[in-house]
Amino acid sequence: MGLYHQIKELYPDISDDDFFLQNDSDGKGDYIRKWKSSYPKPTKAELNAVQAIATEKLKWKEIRAKRNALLSKCDWMIIRHVTQKTLGIKPKLTDGQYTILLTYMQDLRDIPQNYINSDAVVFPILSL
């Protein structure tokens, strides 16, 4: 987990301009090079205390991004199906495929409510 996210977890309102991180590529990772914030500079113990929380939040952010991308890929199929039905054109999807697609999209939307731990998330698979 990156030091940046740990700092943001400790001080959610801190500006990116209030601190500067550096990595010397020496295998030791990031460190705080400059601290200009009115908040006290965090100690190693404080950073370690929020590491798991910050890691979990970052994982959920990545999960939501993937989920949203998958939902976006389905939107055009839903729009096309509904438009074709409305215009009296035979849709490319059967009614069964349309139902499968709607269920898949709902399963994607339900991921944050259905999983407590980000490591347990299993994305549904669309089979049309």
Estimate the mean pLDDT confidence. 95
* Largest sheet descriptor: 2 strands, antiparallel
Radius of gyration: 22 Å
Strand content: 5-15%
Q: What is the helix content?
A: 55-70%
- Along the chain, the helix and strand elements come as HEEHHH
Low-confidence stretches: none
Strand order of the largest sheet: 1-2
User: What gap, in angstroms, lies between the N and C termini?
Assistant: 38 Å
**Count of alpha/pi helices:** 4
What coarse outline follows from CA principal-axis ratios? elongated
How would you describe what is shown here?
- The protein is mainly alpha-helical.
- It has a domain at 64-128.
- Helix content is 55%, strand content 9%.
- A two-stranded antiparallel sheet has the order 1-2.
- The longest helix has 44 residues, at 44-87.
- It is elongated.
List keywords for this structure.
mainly alpha; two-stranded antiparallel sheet; 128 residues; single chain
Write the layout of secondary structure elements.
Elements: H1 3-10, E1 19-23, E2 30-35, H2 44-87, H3 95-109, H4 111-114
Antiparallel strand pairs: 1-2
Helix pairs in contact: 1-2, 2-3
Give a short overview.
Helix 1 packs across helix 2 and helix 2 (44-87) runs antiparallel to helix 3. By secondary structure, the protein is mainly α. It has four helices and two strands; from the N terminus they run H-E-E-H-H-H.
